[in-house]
Write a structure and sequence with these properties.
The complex is a heterodimer. By secondary structure, chain A is mainly alpha-helical. Chain A has helices at 3-25, 30-47. The two termini of chain A are 17 Å apart. In chain B, helix 2 (88-99) packs across helix 9 (326-347), helix 5 crosses helix 9 and helix 9 (326-347) packs antiparallel against helix 10. Classes of the chains: A mainly alpha, B alpha/beta.
Chain lengths: 51, 387
């Protein structure tokens, strides 16, 4: 795994944490919570290396 | 608080369900293997990673079939599915594997050259995941793939693909386009490793001819043709003229541009002694202004919008109510390939390549492609290779 790949995984992990945290903190808008989940999905799959 | 938790949990379950249910079909498609029955001419089957170890264990690794003749002669390599959404090349390659007997010379066939691309689909275009070709013993199912390698295998894409060794700047997506990564590197991006594997075969085994089988839109000018560089031009021209005169179909010759790098018809010739040819057969399924991208459109090539455009003379091939069926496209590839081999054998009588048992255009159009596929269930044990 080269340096670029490691950087991309690190970026994905960072975004997963941010989106997950926003999802948890979202109190009122269900549609925003849904959007967080949808954006989270491909990043999570990539991070878990599910093909 | 309880209501919020309930809503969020429900949302998470719904999203997870959609992901799983949507993913099952794609997972099955990715792992679906096409059985290929080794015909009487097949003498060796090996993986491409034998020639470039960097491919081992990856989805891009693929089967290489060798058909060695009874007598020595010239050598040819046939590549199908460089673009896995242009399946006529794969079908023509499999017909050669299942039926050919090599009298003189050696034929090397890679039916799924971009194996990774054949295990993916095109996002947003609504491609069918499979297509079934009717045969005498039932339907033979094939994966319908994508033009480029699966993004999951080659992640992340660069912003710009810098071609090796010319350093020409190409689109980022071309890093996954096996017909932009010739001649390749053993440890380069995944598709460079694939092309490098084929280059190793050509260099080590002193392959005389390389035939890369493609399909192109009817609205694209480089369609229904043989693309050849200067060194292959004479054979390409003679093959083109002969199929038109003897078999009644057009396959004109296009010159390989020198300034556009990474293509098989340019780089193979520049980096080896092999003579490259790229064959394009029209595939209406790939045209943009068509109806839905159905399996039927892929098989029969009939589309009312293309017909209307044809009447307005907007297409680069003759097109009528009969469409441009798969039988015709596969038949063209087989006849042009056989004609290239015949012209090469005439030109270099000390290195002839003679194939028996491979149908030509007229036979494939009359009998259908399916007639030439053998039933894996009835094949002798050990003769079926999954790809």
């Amino acid at each position: 795994m080269n340096l670029v790949m490691i950087a991309y995984y690190a970026l994905s992990a960072y975004l997963v944490v941010i989106l997950g945290w926003n999802f948890v903190r979202e109190k009122k808008k269900a549609d925003d919570a849904l959007l967080y989940l949808l954006v989270l999905l491909p990043l999570l799959l990539r991070l878990l290396r599910i093909k | 608080m309880r209501r919020e938790l309930l809503i969020k949990t429900s949302l998470a379950i719904v999203v997870a369900l959609i992901a799983v249910l949507g993913g099952i079909d794609l997972y099955r498609h990715r792992h679906f293997q096409v059985p290929i029955v080794c015909g009487p001419g097949v003498t060796k089957v090996e993986k491409l990673s034998v020639h470039v170890p960097g491919l081992e264990g990856s989805l891009a690794d693929t089967q290489v079939f060798t058909l060695e003749g009874k007598e020595p002669g010239g050598k040819v390599i046939m590549l199908g599915s460089s673009h896995a959404n242009e399946p006529a090349g794969t079908l023509a390659s499999i017909i050669v594997i299942e039926n050919a007997v090599v009298d003189q010379g050696t034929v090397i066939v890679i039916p799924y050259f971009n194996h990774s691309g054949s295990c993916a689909t095109r996002p947003g275009d609504g491609y069918p995941l499979y297509f079934d070709v009717p045969t005498d013993w039932g339907g033979k199912r094939f994966r319908m793939g994508n033009r480029d390698a699966a993004p999951l295998e080659a992640w992340p894409d660069p912003d710009v693909y810098i071609h090796y060794p010319e350093r020409q700047l190409l689109s980022y997506i071309d890093v996954r386009n096996v017909n932009r990564t010739w001649p390749g590197r053993p440890n380069g991006p995944l598709m460079e490793r694939v092309t490098r594997g084929a280059m190793e075969i050509m260099r080590r085994q002193k392959v005389d001819l390389a035939i890369d089988l493609h399909g192109a839109e009817t609205m694209f000018p480089v369609t229904n043709c043989i693309v050849a560089p200067e060194k292959s031009m004479r054979i390409a021209t003679l093959a083109s003229l002969t199929v038109k005169a003897m078999e009644g179909f057009e396959s004109h010759v296009e010159s390989s541009p020198t300034g556009f790098r990474g293509l098989s018809h340019r780089e193979i010739g520049d980096h080896s002694d092999t003579l490259p040819f790229l064959l394009e057969a029209p595939i209406p399924f790939l045209d943009q202004p068509t109806g839905p991208k159905t399996e039927q459109l892929l098989l029969d090539g009939k589309d009312p919008f293309l017909l209307s455009l044809s009447r307005k003379k907007k297409l680069f091939v003759p097109y009528d109510e009969t469409g441009w069926p798969l039988d015709k496209r596969v038949g063209q590839h087989l006849s042009v390939t056989l004609e290239i081999l015949r012209q090469f054998s005439k030109k270099t009588p000390d290195r002839p390549i003679r194939l028996l048992g491979v149908p030509r255009y007229g036979e494939v159009v009359k009998n259908g492609v399916g007639r030439y596929f053998h039933d894996p269930a009835a094949a002798p044990s050990g003769s079926v290779v999954l790809n």
